[in-house]
């Protein structure tokens, strides 16, 4: 679809269009489209901008990823369609792998997404047909199956657009979970070590920038960033922001 | 799909299922599914009930429609799939027509929706292949094309699930725009004369009821309803309601 760049909601419409393209390619699930719509609603409430609490979370995420012994980038349908290039850039920056992990799992879709990444940058993504699957815990979805070389042995997992169940399971296994979630009251948001309450399309390039900025910082500085970071405080700030914004908007209407 | 009526989210799942059916029939667009997801999130924040501010807006909408010289009912993919019967009932009650108008326009889809209405009740819908199209303004989408006999010459337009650009353009032309929109901070919500912040599935039957109740009222009473109605106040109440609910939800989460 041709989206007129002068349309006031051109960016949002372009993102929708990418997902519609992803659906046609078999990368995005139908349920993923509805989930994106839910994200859009929260983005409206956040003013469709990266707010201060998100910037702070991005900084902590960068520090955690740089300190990790074996980080992994977990991607699903929507995140691969919207930010494949950013995933690959992170992959090179951190010298780590991408693992495809789907809530609405089909072998075909997982392999399509893997091939999509593999074509963009060969070797970046773990191919499930060549790796050993392991079951991490009693999660009521196919996301419990992970790859031994990937999430199975990672200490820090970047998993944007996660589901709550798995976020909790990964945390229980002692892994640091970093998520990007527009909904600050989701279970994922609460269970992650770092929750970036922002649109993935805005947050991923900022995360890359932050990693590039902190890359040469001494380890002690990175540790300090992670130690002073408080995810509950960040989520609380996000909720306060939405509340304040709603109050201001309500007044403006009167 | 068989949805267990005892499922806590049976109504919501049934609505999703209707849209998935609509997608298969070619009536709903893929992007329409995303838009519905956004609506779902706002409906959650509204407690999935018709609140007082929506009831007040429905009353004003009924008065405007009864006072109109030439009202028109504008339908898109989602609204036709979810509330075709209600559109037709309104059409008979108000002795007016339905016009299909799509944001993600294809001739094929527009005609499919027209045929869908026409089969349910012949003569209710304006058929684009038999009517003269006119361009109403510089809108950055195909929605700028309307039918001369329909939106082109109407004074009051009921257009649930509208986009902001067109809502503004129709208002500029001096038409009264009545919309149903779950997002109280959308441009549509702000630009319409009457914004029913509610789920279309709940609002349409209530609008029919209200029109039936007010049908025999003197014109002076209807005018009074429209004169005392304040859309800005209504939107402000909706925002306040969401705000209060978020505060309660946030407390419950923490």
Explain what the structure shows.
The structure is a homodimer of 254-residue chains. The first copy, chain A, is α/β, with parallel strands linked by helices. Chain A has a single domain (52-242), classed as Rossmann fold. Helices cover 56% and strands 10% of the residues of chain A. Chain A has ten helices and seven strands. In chain A, the strands form two sheets. Chain A has a five-stranded parallel sheet, with helices on both faces. In chain A, strands 3-4 form a two-stranded antiparallel ribbon. In chain A, α4 links the parallel β1 and β2 (97-100). In chain A, α4 packs across α5 (107-120). The interface between A and B is large, with 39 and 42 residues.
Q: What would the keywords be for this entry?
A:
homodimer; about 250 residues; two-stranded antiparallel sheet; about 55% helix
In short:
The structure is a homodimer of 254-residue chains. With 254 residues, the first copy, chain A, is of the alpha/beta class.
- The CATH architecture of chain A comes to 3-Layer(aba) Sandwich
Strand segment tally of chain A: 7
The amount of beta strand of chain A, in percent, is 5-15%
Poorly predicted parts of chain A: none
Quaternary structure classification: homodimer
Count of discrete structural domains of chain A: 1
The rough form of chain A would be described as globular
CATH superfamily of chain A, called what? Phosphopantoate/pantothenate synthetase
Q: Describe the strand arrangement of the main beta sheet of chain A, using strand numbers.
A: 2-1-5-6-7
From the N-terminal CA to the C-terminal CA of chain A, the straight-line distance is 38 Å
Taking all Cα atoms into account, the compactness measure Rg of chain A is 18 Å
CATH class of chain A: Alpha Beta
List SSEs of chain A in N-to-C order: HHHEHEHEEEHEHEHHH
**Class by alpha and beta content of chain A:** alpha/beta
Largest sheet of chain A: 5 strands, parallel
For the largest interface in this structure, which chains are involved and how many residues does each contribute? A-B, 39 and 42 residues
Query: What value does the average pLDDT of chain A take?
Result: 92
């Amino acid at each position: 679809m041709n989206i007129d760049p002068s349309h006031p909601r051109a960016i949002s419409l372009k993102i929708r269009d990418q997902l519609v393209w992803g659906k046609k390619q078999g990368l995005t699930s139908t349920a993923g489209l509805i989930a994106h719509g839910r994200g859009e609603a929260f983005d409206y409430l956040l003013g469709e901008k990266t707010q201060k609490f998100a910037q702070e979370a991005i900084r902590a995420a960068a520090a955690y990823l740089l300190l990790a012994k074996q980080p992994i980038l977990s991607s699903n349908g929507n995140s691969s369609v919207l930010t494949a290039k950013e995933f690959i850039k992170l992959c090179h920056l951190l010298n780590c792998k991408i693992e495809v992990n789907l809530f609405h799992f089909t072998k075909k879709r997982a392999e399509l997404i893997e091939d999509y990444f593999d074509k963009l940058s060969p070797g970046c993504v773990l191919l499930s047909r060549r790796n050993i699957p392991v079951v991490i815990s009693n999660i009521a979805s196919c996301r419990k199956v992970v790859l031994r070389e990937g999430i199975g042995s990672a200490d820090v997992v970047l998993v944007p657009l996660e589901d709550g169940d798995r976020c909790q399971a990964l945390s229980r296994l002692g892994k640091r979970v970093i998520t990007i979630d527009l909904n600050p009251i989701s279970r994922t948001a609460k269970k992650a070590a770092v929750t970036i309450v922002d649109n993935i399309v805005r947050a991923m390039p900022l995360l890359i920038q932050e990693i590039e900025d902190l890359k040469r910082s001494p380890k002690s500085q990175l540790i300090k960033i992670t130690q002073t970071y408080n995810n509950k405080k960040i989520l609380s700030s996000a909720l306060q922001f939405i509340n304040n914004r709603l109050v201001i908007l309500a007044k403006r209407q009167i």
